[in-house]
């Protein structure tokens, strides 16, 4: 029986593949668990439409990420922190604080996990963080840590 895979199945194939399987395997296991669809003309058309939509969504998200990286590349955010007498911070600057500063100062909303700090920032000064997209491309963001006014 010819079937179209709706899920990745180990040793059989990936989503969207058309495979020939034993009738009993398809009728007793794959179809009841909704792992496959019968490979009819209507189902083949449906799967090709789904595949095209998924590809267009991937292309759109890549464009969106590239625009986001362009917005952030080379920009600077200022983070104000409490300091000790020796100009060291009471608490290190975190990715979450950098994300909050980006949202407030640059009006860009992004997940915290995309922000990569090379090390813990524990002193006043200028630093560089990396904004990493899931496509592997990165943008450099300048961080200026200044003391809080007393």
Key phrases:
150 residues; alpha+beta; Ribosomal Protein L9, domain 1; Ribosomal Protein L9, domain 2; 2 domains; four-stranded mixed beta sheet; three-stranded antiparallel beta sheet; 3 helices; 9 strands; 30% strand
Task: Tell me what you see in this structure.
This protein is of the alpha+beta class and 150 residues long. It has two domains: 2-63, Ribosomal Protein L9, domain 1 (3-Layer(aba) Sandwich); 69-147, Ribosomal protein L9, C-terminal domain (Ribosomal Protein L9, domain 2, Roll), CATH 3.10.430. The protein has helices at 23-30, 41-72, 95-106, and strands at residues 2-5, 18-20, 36-38, 76-81, 88-93, 115-116, 121-123, 125-132, 138-147. The strands form three sheets. A four-stranded mixed β-sheet has the order 4-9-8-6. Strand 8 (125-132) and strand 9 form a beta hairpin. The longest helix is centred in the middle third of the chain and has 32 residues, at 41-72. The model has no long low-confidence stretch (mean pLDDT 91).
- The overall pLDDT average reads 91
Structural class: alpha+beta
CATH class of the largest domain: Alpha Beta
Task: Say what oligomer this is.
Answer: single chain
Classify the beta-strand content into a percent band.
Answer: 25-35%
Q: What is the number of helical segments per DSSP (H or I, 4+ residues)? A: 3
The shape, in one word, is: elongated
The CATH H-level homologous superfamily of the largest domain: Ribosomal protein L9, C-terminal domain
Low-confidence stretches: none
CATH topology-level fold name of the largest domain: Ribosomal Protein L9, domain 2
At CATH level 2, the architecture of the largest domain is Roll
The total strand number stands at 9
Measured distance between first and last alpha carbons: 77 Å
* Helix and strand element order: EEHEHEEHEEEE
Describe the sheet with the most strands.
Answer: 4 strands, mixed
Give the % helix: 25-40%
Could you tell me the radius of gyration in angstroms?
Answer: 25 Å
Order of strands, main sheet, comes to 4-9-8-6
Count structural domains.
Answer: 2
């Amino acid at each position: 029986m010819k079937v179209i895979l709706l899920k990745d199945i180990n040793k059989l194939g990936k989503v969207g593949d058309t495979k020939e399987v034993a009738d009993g395997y398809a009728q007793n296991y794959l179809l009841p668990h909704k792992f496959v669809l019968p490979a009819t003309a209507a189902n083949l058309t449906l799967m090709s439409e789904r595949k095209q939509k998924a590809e267009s969504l991937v292309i759109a998200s890549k464009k969106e990420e590239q625009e986001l990286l362009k917005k952030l590349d080379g920009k600077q955010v200022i983070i104000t922190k409490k300091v000790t007498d020796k100009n060291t911070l009471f608490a290190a600057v975190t990715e979450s604080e950098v994300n909050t500063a980006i949202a407030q100062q640059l009006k860009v909303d992004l997940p915290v996990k995309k922000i990569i700090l090379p090390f813990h920032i524990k002193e006043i000064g200028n630093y560089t963080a990396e904004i990493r997209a899931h496509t592997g491309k990165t943008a450099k963001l300048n961080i200026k840590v200044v003391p809080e006014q007393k």
